[in-house]
Amino acid sequence: MLGPVILAASRSDKMRRFISAAPGTKQVVGRFIAGETVEQVVPIIEDAAGKGLEVTMDVVGEDITTPEQAAAARDAYLELIGRLKDLGLGTRAEMSVKLSMFGQSLPSPATTLNGEPSGLAPAFHGGHELALANVRPVVEAAAEIGTTVTLDAEDHTTLDSMFAIHEELRKDYPQTGCVIQAYLFRTEEDARRLAAAGSRVRIVKGAYKEPASVAYQEKAEIDKAYVRILRTLMDGEGYPMIGSHDPRLIAIAQELGRKAGRKLDEYEFQMLYGIRSEEHIRLAAEGHRMRVYTAYGTDWYGYFMRRLAEKPANLLFFGRSILTKG
Fold first, then answer.
1. Measuring CA to CA, which residue among 181, 182, 173, 168 is closest to residue 142?
2. Fewest CB within 10 A of the end CB: N or C in the chain?
3. Average pLDDT for 12-40
4. What distance in Å separates the CA atoms of residue 326 and residue 322, rounded to the nearest whole number?
5. The model scores a pTM over 0.70
6. 152 in active site
């Protein structure tokens, strides 16, 4: 299986240097990464809005090693939100954030909120508090322009912290969303807890290398878990967000939505920028809410490698591009 190998390579500095220098890399990265700056992605947001699509914006970059880098990640999102405000696009775009970018994994003692304890469980230390302190102003700024933030799921060791921060943010900003991953054993229980009124939950299959002790390893088992979890979300009182490009899972989601008595605007589909773009348009034309997950920024390597790992065809496309340009 190539997926686990590619995911391991996503953590390799040697592979990062090799792939970054490969002649065909820029062409392929451009398929998945919308640009490097806010100004480069603004036309893409405007184009999506013109087609009846919505977007969720991800400023890529996860290898944060200092509090200063975490603060810079916060500021990058605040810059984006300010630009969306200027353009009047706040209701068409939301933010997706990885708490690792905001300092979640930093070992050093972290700041508290406004000099006061945040009220989070004492089991969390260091970067957990720093991540909350950095993400809160982003959530606040998003709310001010009529949109919201979804906390992306990362590897399983970070999830208790992510869910605690999600719960804390929802006290003041109940529209704050989170992501759950179907391949993890814990997720069915998480889904039952999260499928409550007012919640916004994106379900994805999962794109990190996880051990067999915590996650399903076979595609068929992951797909079955995805459907079970999605049924829980559709039958609940929250707002499900279906993150998938799989035609079979999309059809199942539509059927589950009908059986649960949901209107088309009571859930949404989400797909990645650059993948199955025609399907984005088709679902929107049918009356579904369709949101395009749009990543941008200079630190694209980890995001790019996970896109290759998710689908072998992406790796073949990359390989052909390197050979063609070499």
1. 173
2. C
3. 68
4. 6
5. yes
6. yes
